[in-house]
Design brief:
Shape: flat
Number of strands: 6
Order of helices and strands: HHHHHHHHHHHHHHEEHEEEE
Largest sheet: 6 strands, mixed
Radius of gyration: 27 Å
Helix content: 40-55%
Strand order of the largest sheet: 2-1-6-5-4-3
Structural class: alpha+beta
Oligomer: single chain
Amino acid sequence: MRLLSDADALAVWGQIAPTGDDWDLKLDEIPADVERPLAIALLRAGNFACAPQQPARDCVRPLFDMPEPVASAGLGDPCLRRLLALWAIDQLEPEDVPTVSAALHAIAALPPPESQLVAAAIDVVPEGDHAARLDMIATAYKAGQSELANIAVTRLDEADLIDAVTRLHIDGALDGLSAKSQRKVFLGAVVDEALAPKARVLAIDELANVDAQLATDVKAALVKATAAADCNVAAAAARALEQRGDKRFVPKPPPVRTPAKMMRALCVLASYEQRQSAGADSLLALFVAPKGLERVNVTYDALSDVDDDGDGDPHTKHVIDLVPKSEVVLPEIEDLVRAMTHCKGTTCTSDDREFKFVIDGAGRLVRLEVVERPPCPHA
């Protein structure tokens, strides 16, 4: 059988008519001489997005496994087509890859929870074609496949790793490089707002430990990074400078204490104190009113049926304390740092808690509520 075009091949797919019940058996019956044209035509036809993107809202459980096609699923079903696509990619020869490059990039651009098909699209690119493989990895990374892309990028050589960090902002590529041998790359990473914060923090830590004293170029990069949009990066830079004698950027209340500026300073403070050694004094006292800080803890007990505190909800319990200024500390520091990346106004939310900051007219922190969130209901 000769298939002269994609249209011919797709017509044959219509005759094969795989379903969710028998697709694997029908693939086994395809003659070897038409496997490649059938594979190429299927990949070019696309439609492999099996799992719809989930809405960003509370209590939406993430998908970890791709749905299987139902038994009656036909050739137009994306969940069946993704299984056929895995077979199709496996049929490709190296010389076929450029002819289906656009199709492979469309697959690489599929967001999580898809991973198997994305990995196959990357792996089919010949290892010797560094530029094409890196380009495919970059497509996956932009689609939110950071874990998969960061694993794939480690197989590249040093020149490609440098390109991945500096041009494509793929954070995992920095793990394969050294601050001693690639100083310029690490200096650029420190101030690269397009790079993931964890990579920038890694660059800060490694550069700060290259020399006993901070070199001029390193110090300049750290000073610039103290103004980074991400609080973790700003705090890491401030901490590195402070440990080497430059205390100018240690977190403190801003000169103009608007709620927004105070929240930014508190965000940096939380990340800064997360990096301190155990037992170090908290700087939170600088932010609170002279009378101290009103601390409200709201715990949640799903099994409780008695409204002990009279708030109308038997599952919650409020405890209010006035903490003296000399004793204030940031609560639940690990979770607070996570929450500070998800703030609306003066309320920051993690999966487990809400942190509500109350700032008075003078720009002082007077109240902090830590509210346990109820668990997501089971499906």
